[in-house]
Amino acid sequence: MVNRSVIETVPLFQECDEIFQHKLALVLKPVVAAPDEWIIRRGDTGNEMYFLVRGAVDVVGEDGRVITSLGPGSFFGETSLLLSEPRNASIRATTYCELFVLDRADFNRVLRDHPQFARSILDACRRRYRVTVEPDQAFDRQVNLLLGVRP
Predict the structure, then answer these.
(1) Rounded to an integer, what distance in angstroms lies between the CA atom of residue 129 and that of residue 135?
(2) What is the reported pTM?
């Protein structure tokens, strides 16, 4: 299943078992973006993350300069999905792009059906974002609330 191979590329989901990954893959929605289309705008509220299957996108910083370019197999938007924070960069398609979208409602629904994976996702989230998010009790509470984990 193509969707499942997309999910397996995300570090946050690699520690989860095949059943959980499969259920996430089932809720992915296909999206197409045209060249020069803005997929994400910095500062917007984000309720989804994206998986780039075909095409290329630029990650654009606050000053309008391209920070990096991403190609097939890349993903973006997971910070807003997991932490309910505003988008920290803009994403613009540079070619025609085929993407899959995972929205927060579907993610949370799958997580509620498989709460045993909340801890592994929480731990992966802590490891991945410790660089940009100060590790403290407020961060832990925010992630625990998102994942429905009781302290």
Answers:
(1) 9
(2) 0.75
Task: Return the C-alpha torsion angle 116, 22, 108, 98, nearest 10.
Answer: 150
pLDDT digits (tens, 9 = 90+) for 10-55: 776 777 788 888 888 888 899 999 999 999 999 998 889 898 989 9
Per-residue pLDDT at 76 exceeds 80: yes
Cα–Cα distance for residue pair 78/12, rounded to 1 Å: 9
Task: Give the right CATH number for 2-147 from 3.30.497.10, 2.60.120.10, 2.60.120.260, 2.30.30.100.
Answer: 2.60.120.10
Distance CA 35, CA 117 (A): 37
For 101-124, b/e burial (b = at least 16 CB within 10 A) is bbbbebbeebbeeeeebbebbbeb
**Beta carbons of 142 and 30 less than 8 angstroms apart:** no
What pLDDT does residue 120 have? 65
Residues 84-100 as b or e (16 or more Cβ within 10 Å = b):
eeebbbbbbbbeebebb
**First CA to last CA distance, the chain:** 36
Domain boundaries, the chain: 2-147
Which structure tokens are listed for 39? Answer: 């997929």
